[in-house]
Amino acid sequence: MLHPRGMRRRVKRLLKLERSMFRRMLGVYPETYAAMLGVMKEREANKKRSGRPAALELEEQLVLTLEFWREYRSHEHLAMEWEVDESTVRRTIRRVEDTLIGSGAFKLPGRKKLRQEMSFEVVVVDVAESPIERPKKSSEPTTRGRKSGIP
Q1: Is residue 140 part of a domain?
Q2: Rounded CA gap, 82 and 106, in Å?
Q3: Is 30 contained in some domain?
Q4: Could you list the residue range(s) of the whole structural domain that residue 74 is in?
Q5: What's the number of domains the chain is made of?
Q6: Is 130 helix (H, G, I), strand (E, B) or coil?
Q7: Which residue in 113, 69, 110, 111 sits closest to 92, CA to CA?
Q8: Which residues of the chain have pLDDT under 70?
Q9: pLDDT of 63
């Protein structure tokens, strides 16, 4: 069983990766990760009541969510890997998503803007019909030979 410090070590190991490898592992650059973490820390500081402490640290919550987005693994697999309950994984992902969306710093441009910026290139391919090569039908007794043993 992983000790909580072991999970923190995992996050620290990820943070030590070079920029391109970090991007390959989590799907975002380290600068984006730091900005996301800043938004989450700001939300945590502005909370009215403390409540029950979270099972995972903020860094771990963000890494868990990024892993879910990157690999799209099931909540059950993530729960087993992070040694928390499946409902904890579900709540954590939902909380992180709501926090990042609510900040407004990480939203994609709208559909209209994307369509204005896109340029289409049309490629025309001439596909000629060609007959399918199939064996010729024959009247050889191969089929009859197989059927003759059946009563």
Answers
A1: no
A2: 26
A3: yes
A4: 4-106
A5: 1
A6: coil
A7: 69
A8: 1-7, 108, 139-151
A9: 94
